[in-house]
Write a structure and sequence with these properties.
The complex is a heterodimer of chains A (305) and B (250). With 305 residues, chain A is mainly alpha-helical. Chain A is built from ten helices and five strands, in the order E-E-H-H-H-H-H-E-E-H-H-H-H-H-E. In chain A, the strands form two sheets. Chain A has a two-stranded antiparallel ribbon with strand order 1-2. In chain A, strands 3-4 form a two-stranded antiparallel ribbon. In chain A, strand 1 and strand 2 form a beta hairpin. The radius of gyration of chain A is 19 Å and the shape is globular. By secondary structure, chain B is α+β, with helices and mostly antiparallel strands. Helix content of chain B is 30%, strand content 38%. In chain B, strand 12 and strand 13 form a beta hairpin. In chain B, helix 5 crosses helix 6. In chain B, the strands form three sheets. Chain B has a six-stranded mixed beta sheet. Chain B has six helices and 13 strands. The interface between A and B is large, with 60 and 63 residues.
Chain lengths: 305, 250
Amino acid sequence: MDIYLPIAAISLDVFVLLALGGVVGFLSGVFGVGGGFLLTPFLIFIGVPHAIAVASSANQLVGASVSGALAHWRRGNVDLQMGLVMLAGGFAGSAVGVWFFGVLRRIGQIDLAISLAYVLLLGTLGTLMLIESTRAILRLRRPGGVRRKLHQHIWLHGLPLKMRFRRSKLYISALLPLALGFFGGVLSAVLGVGGGFVMVPAMIYMLGMPTAMVPGTSLFQIIFVAASVTVLQAVENGTVDAVLALVLLVGGVIGAQLGTRFGTRLRGEQLRALLALLVLGIALKLVVDLTVKPVDPYTIEAVSE
Amino acid sequence: MSRPLPLPLPLLLLLPLVLAAPARAAEPLVADLTNHLVAITTGFTGTNVVLFGATDGPGDVVVVVRGPDHDVVVRRKSRVGGIWMNKRQMTFQGVPSYYELLSSKPLDDIMPAAVQGFHQIGLPFMRMSVIEKRSPEDIAEFRAALMRQQQREGLYPTGVGRVSFLGDRLFHATLTFPANVPTGTYRLEVFLVRNGQVVSGQTSPLVVSQVGIDAEVNDFANRRALLYGFVAVIGAAMAGWLASLPFRNA
């Protein structure tokens, strides 16, 4: 059954969209990642224009992260203070990102920028994950194993504007979470991702937050960053397809809840290795699309006015 | 995005013609559509509209359907460091967003190119302007690319559709609109051709419009972008919250 998407102005099969939302939601539930970085490339692959895929993913992300953050909130795993500081950076980042997005769109390079950014991001992420999970699998086979270091203070923590974060038991410069939030905001605006896959490791290793606090706090701030990206994209670029976002969301939240339960019963290392391969596969497909000679080197775009 | 005309107006415009037809045989050409509104609903996958009409004697009929004009940017990708990226671009003004051509006989058999050009019958005669100063070869190349892309999208014809005659005077044709048909007010031109000349013509409007919830969403998103953004956010947040409820005690 086809559904007509009013902003994208194309018809797509509603079951394909639901399944896409469901699969991405499921993966995000299993691995505890946002899933935006999987959703946007898949939307592009099924024919949604790049700009609309990005902005609508951000819209979808609002719902997905509300659902996720609530679960963590109920367990008391959200550092509100840290989240708010990051959010301040996130708002600024999303404004800069959406403005930049508009500039790229006007000069006709937005598709290229999105594809390149995804190749870079997914390529790095996939490689790191593959190395990490392979090591973990090898380590499991050997008895004993290596003990990780607890959090250490690094020079970055000593920057000015030091602040005490009680929940996370940290006393570090507020500039760090601000900068991290800003970076996440830019990513969210340009790529339609929450940035969890960058934020989560950075919050653990750079800020030194307790691991339990990280996903909830990250999701909490993603809600508002994605919300700000959605509103800004709607106003600045008119690229938010709310119908698309809602359909994806319906599939996504169900998938995510199922994925969360499924994930707790599975061995993590093999799964992470699989996800790494999937991520690398998407990056590879994007590389192929960028480098293979196009059927027709010309593209056209209707402009208003 | 242009606003749809209320339905009765095009019908009213045609009414005198249709009523006058049987009474006055002097009217050389009368034509009408089965439907003056193509409504794009949520399940829209394209539609057909039947054109029918009568002439006052033997002759050929040519039909041109033009979607609303807009500006189109054509970009050309070149290889830069192994990557195909947009390098050059050209903006065309007054480009029909949709074009369809139907005829009762091959065009070249019934009228000379000059007549086709005068009435903009056929893709080679479509008028569109370029603002930037560019060489004629450049323009021709980009123009051809524009035509090709529009054809690939099914918005421009790859051939000439058929107008069928029933006897000498009655004719009909089926206009097929694809799922991706652009919205707006279309112009339908019907020409009566005799001895290589257009002896009569008739123009009527046809409205392609989103209706129902999609139309409202699109309209809302265009006119009140800020509010639309907030509604999109709140809708998504509500959906996320609702979805988490059944799993609360897990």
